[in-house]
Specification:
heterotetramer; A: 234 residues; alpha/beta; Glutaconate Coenzyme A-transferase; three-stranded antiparallel beta sheet; 6 helices; B: 219 residues; three-stranded mixed beta sheet; succinyl-CoA:3-oxo-acid CoA-transferase activity (chains B, D); transferase (chains B, D); CoA_trans_fam_I (chains B, D); CoA_transf_AS (chains B, D); EC 2.8.3.5 (chains B, D)
Chain lengths: 234, 219, 234, 219
């Protein structure tokens, strides 16, 4: 089986150039590629376009890339609470494109699956529909949406093997599998890297064909945004 | 007048056995507390889980297990996990039958506005546009009026729209209202102690009143 | 958790009416819902439309339904070697719609996912394209294809739980997961039915939301079409 | 003149290290026997497997593990299984880089016909239309002429088309030919003992000959 292993995060992200279009997996701070983001922060690159459901928080995740002014544009469904983000947005330093979450997921899926366009009901009648083709099927209105692809997709999995096969855990799966398929170069960081053959082929979430580089990450913080315990209600 | 928990409690009565349900952030999340134990329903979290359980005890907290509000949660027996594309496939495909969410405004033809206030920092629509465009039944939980007393049940939404002609029912602190297919808020129930006249005065959209309007009851 | 269990195949298929549109999982004879097909053969119904990648063989699978003249129309990608099929087709008793396999898989996926139409390059310039919208994206031509849905989807899994969650084994997975999502009523037969909670939520291939009825099948034959062993080459 | 195994052997030389490959039924399947051991490649089966292994021994036969030709197979270390939509997502998305398949006719601009003969029972296109519409590199394995001596390398396909302008290379019993971007079969290699004149006489489409055409070698 083809071996996709690279030494570490630095090695994995070393050729990402300024101006690249990146996809970064994760929902909130769950399932984000912590090690790769750290390694990106060491690089002197800027003008990145980041496709990611959220934009991290001030001092974690993509928020750190924003703070370092590496990001020119965010494509997300919800950018949440991030003071630096807000400042850059209001000052015009940062461009933001907001996309309905399901449309974002499906556009990324389409990018990996060779589907250049599809129709969805999400956003009909809203400003999301501006400039998009509107079409009726079986009595309901839909928008045409295009695929999304990236120069580099950076994902985080629970386990992976040297052939690039990935298994995710819990809700940390989220956008990671679709992004893995939509990257021209896909970088996967995993908590546990095992030899090809150690994972049950029936249980692979992302087949290795989508992954070009894989490494075992270290020191995962896995920060929790909303720590809630029994008895609490928001 | 109902408080938030009572709005949630009243909405819980709309839940039917066997339903798959998506609960939005805020009051909708509270609905889970009032679903009767004899109903078998499954709560979906659009970040990739069917079968949301209670919040965890301290020792069971798992950063890899959160809901769409980014809160730590648990799973139930029979839960399943999936990616975001599959999650919204479920939603878009109409498999999630009931969506309960908050709103800033609802119009008499069922339009909803809940994602953007011009002039304020826009955080994004998240999954709301997908949810309102998809579920066969959409119930809105909201305050009848804004803090400065303006009706939020309007002829036409003033704020940017999240979805068109999608809301089926609205439960507010004052009333339960059905959106009629031909347009209009049909008044189904009054909150305890709230008069039809008060509801009428606080509803800018067309209010439809047929016969005696009962006061809500709570079991 | 909602309990989807029914007693057996007879119970599961008892209300399928004549003229219904069915989806049946399987590729070749692998992963086909054997028990449900047997139960359908006991019913006095006809005029069925069957959406299935293949049409079985003369004496197994959908071939048996053809022999009993229950099927009005097949929608498939490859109908293979089946003498009775050929006879009915040539005599005009049976209607056949042939669809590229990837397009079939994606149309069924779209049906379950609420995507009424999408674009694919498969079939451009061929008779498959006749009457379909042709459109260029990024310099390449694509066809617009519509979703497929069914009144009843009938699938076969390896393991399932009472909540309707399914796990498939090997290449018997094939069309089953997409069909499960595209049926108004989805019937799942499994080799092993376990209580909700016994399956790892991370390993579910088809979430129970898509399944309305589930039962444990019996006496699986799992017939092999091309038995090949080491040393042989076709 | 090459036999089927030699056609497969010659095609195997086109395989590059690290490729994901889909092999069609017939001669293409034989290619697997000739891929050098020092190349790491992965074979895809469009019914849902990456990493096709050898045929099983009797005791390892599993009816739940077949290839797209419905033959019983095995998996390799690092194999993965998936559903048919994912399988064709891989193919359509260009992740499967090389497709090798048979053909009844190929035209000088790269059109391929391999699924239907008018007047004969049509069995279906299976995954062929998806495969030829998608892979960046498509190599056809075929006989140069039909049994009655008609050229199958044509100006224009006479049979119903499977895909347009998709074939990059053709390996026949007589020759290796490249389809030029501007159209035409560029003769790259002759089978041992086969003359350029013979190839010319058996090629109906435009044959492009530049300089000396080498005879194939087999290691």
């Amino acid at each position: 089986m083809i071996n996709k292993t690279v030494a570490n995060a630095e090695e994995a992200v070393k050729d990402i150039p300024s101006g690249a279009v990146l996809m970064l997996g994760g929902f909130g701070l769950s399932g984000i590629p912590e090690n790769s983001i750290d390694a990106l922060l060491q690089r002197d690159i800027k003008g990145l376009t980041c496709i990611s459901n959220n934009a991290g928080v001030d001092d974690f995740g993509i928020g750190l890339m924003l703070k370092k002014r590496m990001v020119k544009k965010m494509i997300s469904s919800y950018v949440g609470e991030n003071a630096e983000f807000e400042r850059q947005l209001l000052s015009g330093e940062l461009e933001v494109e907001l996309i309905p979450q399901g449309t974002l997921a499906e556009r990324v899926r389409a990018g990996g699956a060779g589907i250049p366009a599809f129709f969805t009901p999400a956003g009909v009648g809203t400003e999301v529909a501006e400039g998009k083709e509107l079409r009726e099927f079986d009595g309901k209105l839909y928008l045409m949406e295009r695929w999304l692809k990236a120069d580099f997709a950076i994902v985080k999995a629970w386990k992976g093997d040297t052939a690039g096969n990935l298994i995710f855990k819990g809700t940390a799966r989220n956008f990671n599998p679709m992004m893995a398929a939509a990257g021209r170069i896909t970088i996967a960081e995993v908590e546990e890297l095992v030899p090809a053959g150690d994972l049950d082929p029936n249980q692979i979430h992302t087949p290795g064909i989508y992954v070009q580089r894989i490494f075992q990450g270290i020191d995962y913080e896995k920060r929790i945004e909303q720590r809630t315990v029994t008895g609490e209600r928001s | 007048m109902l408080n938030k928990n009572q709005i949630a409690q009243r909405i819980a009565k709309e839940v039917k056995n066997g339903q798959y349900i998506n609960l939005g952030i805020g009051i909708p999340t509270l609905v889970a507390n009032y679903i009767p134990d004899n109903l078998d329903v499954v709560l979906q979290s659009e970040n990739g889980l069917l079968g949301i359980g209670p919040f965890p005890t301290e020792d069971l907290i798992d950063p890899d297990l959160i809901n769409a509000g980014k809160q730590t949660i648990t799973m139930l027996k029979g839960s399943s996990l999936f990616n975001s594309a599959e999650s919204f496939a479920m939603i878009r495909g109409g498999h999630v039958q009931l969506t309960i969410l908050g709103a800033m405004e609802v119009s008499e033809n069922g339009d909803i506005a809940n994602w953007k206030i011009p002039g304020k920092m826009v955080k994004g629509m998240g999954g709301a546009m997908d949810l309102v465009a998809s579920a066969e039944n959409i119930i809105v939980a909201m305050q009848h009026c804004s803090k400065d007393g303006q009706s939020k049940l309007l002829k036409k939404c003033a704020l940017p729209i999240t979805g068109l002609r999608c809301v089926k029912k609205v439960v507010t602190d004052l009333a339960v209202l059905e959106i009629l297919p031909e347009g209009g808020f049909k008044l189904l129930e009054r909150a305890p102690g709230v008069s039809v006249e008060e509801i009428q005065s606080k509803t800018e959209g067309r209010l439809v009143i047929e016969g005696e309007v009962p006061e809500m009851t709570f079991d």
